[in-house]
């Protein structure tokens, strides 16, 4: 039997007899999938790619379902980028393999919008293909700098829901300090670290805290990409006065992922004025980025020196105990507590960031809900099968050797050679340290892969680099960057 829906998700809820697949409703699947993706993706990505999709049909006879995209361009991109994810979501939801296909939806819904198509200033958006700039649509009502009292804060991202550990305690302490004394102590505050480590969470927490203490404070959270759009829009509408009035009058500006300003000189110029105005008003500015100020590419020197003039704090990848604590806390808040041994199992295998942990937890919980099982290590292993095999494939000792050698511009062969000049010996020790951190290999196994070295040599390297890393910010940063390339 074939169930056909006509396009929009609104219509789907009017169905007289919701079709049943294994007593799980396809509508439930769609709501679930949309909900999960809205949490996994940035609001911008979600709005651009996922929101316009609709569930067109569900075919019981061959376990397949069809998703509609509003135009050819989005269809291609969705197929390329999200097909696997939908496949996986459907299979987890229905508890068996489901074939997901994509097609053009018959009646594309075209919202009334002004496009930035003809604008020569249109920036190259850093995410998604270049053509999206032409497609990119901005509704006039949304003109965000006009909605003056809208902070855009997410009320769930608070200090209370933020788990603390060694990796983020400095960043958290600084954030609390700034939340209590905005505009006085650390201005600007510059928070940097890799993806999914809690930067966005922390700056929302600062905003939420201030909003609670001073409900009339003029606070604005904005992603740098959105700020770029605002500049484009102000330019297009000849509305720079309004733009300036809005941004220059804030009490707290939280600007996220400022690396997106790279190469966008007009945006940088406007931001420079806003920044100067805010600081001279003793308004607080908080900036996040994926790297520290001096390392940022494509950003004007005078901005970099401004960023560097306040407090710069790093947020590090969570250590094992913190990953365990995060999993357990989030599991409880989802209503399905997870025992410590399961949390340890998951945390040991997933090391890179908190977002990844959240993704894993969602998978486990979906599995548990749909199969009516307890949360055990076995269940976790099954639910995370794909994720764990990707992890294992990606981070091998060989990959680490290559990434480290590339980073320090030495030959991979130097990783196993007997040569000992310092410019080789040190990267080699770093690679050994990372091999111990990021793979399941034992010390002798690692020694073997580094040209048949003794396990005591490896142990010495691991201890030495661990110790140096704890007091040498530069080394710590380098390791961090290498880790990111390994996980990219
Ligand atoms: P970033 O902005 O650094 O990429 P986010 O702040 O978006 O990372 O964090 C990714 C996800 O992980 C969010 O859902 C966030 O709430 C969660 N998260 C990050 N760090 C923590 C933490 N220490 N405690 C609880 N949740 C966290
Ligand atoms: Mg973020």
Task: Write a brief structural summary.
With 488 residues, the chain is of the alpha/beta class. The protein has 21 helices and 11 strands. The strands form 3 sheets. Strands 8-9-10-7-11 form a 5-stranded parallel beta sheet, sandwiched between helices. A 4-stranded mixed beta sheet has the order 1-2-3-4, covered by helices on one side. It has a two-stranded antiparallel sheet with strand order 5-6.
For the sheet with most strands, the description reads:
5 strands, parallel
- The CATH level-2 architecture of the largest domain is identified as 3-Layer(aba) Sandwich
> How many domains in all?
4
Name the ligand types.
Answer: adenosine-5'-diphosphate, magnesium ion
Helix tally equals 21
Q: Under the CATH scheme, which class of the largest domain?
A: Alpha Beta
Strand order of the largest sheet: 8-9-10-7-11
Helix content: 40-55%
Which value, in Å, is the CA radius of gyration?
25 Å
Describe this structure in words.
The chain is α/β, with parallel strands linked by helices. The protein is built from 21 helices and 11 strands. It has 4 domains: about 140 residues, 2-Layer Sandwich (GMP Synthetase, Chain A, domain 3); about 150 residues, 3-Layer(aba) Sandwich (Rossmann fold); about 70 residues, Helicase, Ruva Protein, domain 3; about 90 residues, Orthogonal Bundle (Chromosomal Replication Initiator Protein Dnaa, Chain: A). The strands form 3 sheets. Strands 8-9-10-7-11 form a 5-stranded parallel beta sheet, sandwiched between helices. A 4-stranded mixed beta sheet has the order 1-2-3-4, covered by helices on one side. Strands 5-6 form a two-stranded antiparallel sheet. Strand 3, helix 4 and strand 4 form a beta-alpha-beta unit. Helix 6 runs parallel beside helix 7, helix 12 crosses helix 14 and helix 17 runs antiparallel to helix 18. The longest helix has 23 residues. The radius of gyration is 25 Å and the shape is globular. Adenosine-5'-diphosphate (ADP) binds next to helix 7 and helix 14.
